[in-house]
Amino acid sequence: MRRALALGAACAVVAAAFSGAFGGYRSGQLSLFLVFAALAVSLDFVWGYSGILSLGQLLPFGIAAYTSAKVAAAAPSLSVPMLVGSAAVGAGVAAALGVAMLRRRPSAVVVGLLTLVLSLTLEQLAEQWRDLTGGFNGLTGVPRLGAFGIELSDTAQDVAISVLAIVAITVVGTLLTRPIGAVLIGIRSNERRMEALGYKTVQIKIWAFTVGGALAGFAGALYVHRTSFVSPQIFGFSLATSVVLWTLVGGRGTIVGPVIGAMAINFASATLADVWLQYWTLATGLIFVAVVVVMPHGLVPSAQRLAGRPARRRQQPTLRPAATDGDATSGPGAGTQAPSAAAAAVFEAREVHKSFGFFRLLDGVTLTMDDAELRCLIGPNGAGKSTLLDILSGQQGCQSGRVLVLGAEHTGRQAWEFARHGVSRKFQSPQLIDDLSVATNVAIAAWGTRSSPWNLIRRPWATAVPRPALEVLERTQLGERLDMRAGDLSHGDKQWLEIAMAVAGDCGLLLLDEPTAGMTVAESLEAAALLRELHRSHRLPIVIVEHDMAFIRAVADRVTVLARGEVIADGTVAEVESDPDVQAIYAGVDS
Length: 591
Hints:
This protein has 24 helices and 16 strands. The strands form five sheets. It has a six-stranded mixed β-sheet, with helices on both faces. The chain folds into two domains: 2-233, no CATH class; 371-396 and 422-585, Rossmann fold (3-Layer(aba) Sandwich). Helix 12 packs antiparallel against helix 13 (280-294). A hairpin with a 2-residue loop joins strand 6 (347-356) and strand 7 (359-369). By secondary structure, it is α/β, with parallel strands linked by helices.
């Protein structure tokens, strides 16, 4: 955080000195291009960090610009306070759009097209609302920034706008150095995993969309005072695509990248327009294409790679043991929630039906775990094992039946609600946040069940992690590679890391889908020993979907067999292996 603030302060001083030294035309260019940089950063916050491709970032930008222009024309003394008001206007526009759009979980393409169409529609409407927007010609003569009856000179306004744009960019950049930045990257990279950890991903994405809108609205107010003019073209296709281009060329997901992209492209375009009037647009386009082809990740990440530095250097959390296994009440991820002896059943699935078209995956399955046991769920491919785990963790709903977990009705609830009630899930293939470190993956898992965006801004990077998660890290040597990028781990280590993440939250029921897939025989037996130790030491109920009978014999207290969407056997390993129905199903299979 201090590093980001120091960099922002230095940039503000340099911009102020540049504007004061050169004044006039160059000072005006710098201030305008810094406003465009702030607009690009607002898109980067929404797209580069949160994964929401918004081609309509001009909506909060343009509406705030028009609002600021009208207020300043009516009451020039309110132009400075209206900068904050414009940020609020931008936030309100983005929040309304985010709630209406993101709650339905549209794809990235749908979001991009919808926001672009809305922006172009508003451009057409602005051309028609002459009384409000000035029609096609727009609003002119917007007064300069001023307060208390004093209006800034052109040079003073350029200095003020440059400094304010840098301050706004720095505030957003500083925000992303907090844990919320890592969580946004997690949602962008693997939303399914984040929901399984307890994050209300839709709520966080709407929040991110709102913050991006606030920055865009602030930039819109600065823009209208810098140009003294606003027209419907502020919502147009040309500027909308330019913002995307600035972000891509600079390097999205870096904050500094969009700033450099916006500044470099606009200064290059202005210079080419001066020296090569007839062909400057073509020349600019060719330069942009060359940059994208040679540096597909953008200028800043590519320059960092050439310099031998990691493309993205982020704050790393410090993992410390939670005070006790029952310390869940003291903060996110502080302990497990294994049910007490007097509690209700660990889980109950009653007459659960699940079909896809004419294919029945689960046909009236009833399954109960009364005590904190270690149970394996087996059966042939297509028997419905993973689907049942999905239903027990909220990843899928069922057509009929009831699901009760840890004494509470969960039928029809979402995955994050299951997670916040103690259900932890490991998926069939490792589901990690590949771009983040091992330590950050575990920390994100520990924060998940009790974290709102504002809590993630305030919370420290030092993270209390339950002892089961630390034990997994220690036993698998992942504790010695906490700074390693998760995506660079071997397949077996990814399996271990996902198990550590699953028990890093408030885990009261652990669901594991083929945890030894891709492991060697030795690694599978080590996994069995580790899971039995977790189960015994922490009274942790565990359900495992697995095919490896050697592993099952080593780990299971009880085995349930699914076939044709039904439970056909349930008992100890020996009882299940001697069951005639099970033998008939597995006839010819070496067990």
